[in-house]
């Protein structure tokens, strides 16, 4: 019996982040789905930066391209200042709102 081989390719979300709106929605979804996990958020920012062009983001932030790849990887642990620089360079803004589901402390 002949078996058909299934060919798979690696999923790269950066290939689907074509507009700033796509990027903002993706980051917002990652923040929500990861329950605020810093590593997941950093990886999402890395994916967005790759979609926009890591060389340009490095230039706009004043940070080295290789250090950005490292900081925005699953093993990275970027400083908050780095996150803010990357967000600004991506043309995005943070938006904070009250969580009305949480009881006050």
Describe the structure.
It is a single chain. It is built from 5 helices and no strands. By secondary structure, it is an all-alpha fold. It has a domain at 20-89. The longest helix has 15 residues, at 38-52.
Distance between the terminal alpha carbons, to the nearest Å? 66 Å
The SS-based structural class is: mainly alpha
**Poorly predicted regions:** none
Share of residues in strands: under 5%
Helix amount: 40-55%
pLDDT average, as an integer?
90
From N to C, what is the helix and strand string?
A: HHHHH
- How many strands in all? 0
Q: Given the C-alpha coordinates, what overall shape results? A: globular
Q: How is the biggest beta sheet arranged?
A: none
Which terms would index this structure?
single chain; 105 residues; mainly alpha
Topology diagram in text:
Blueprint: H1 20-33, H2 38-52, H3 54-61, H4 65-71, H5 80-89
Helix pairs in contact: 1-2, 3-5
Put the structure in a nutshell.
This protein is mainly α and 105 residues long. The protein is built from 5 helices and no strands.
């Amino acid at each position: 019996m002949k078996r058909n081989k299934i060919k798979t390719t690696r999923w790269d979300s950066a290939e689907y982040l074509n507009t700033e709106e796509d990027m903002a929605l993706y980051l917002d979804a990652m923040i929500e789905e990861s329950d605020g996990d810093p590593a997941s958020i950093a990886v999402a920012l890395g994916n967005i930066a790759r979609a926009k062009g890591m060389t340009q983001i490095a230039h706009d932030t004043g940070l080295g391209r290789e250090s950005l790849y490292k900081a925005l990887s699953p093993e990275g642990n970027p400083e908050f200042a780095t996150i803010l620089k990357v967000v600004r360079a991506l043309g995005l803004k943070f938006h904070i709102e009250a969580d009305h589901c949480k009881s006050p402390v």
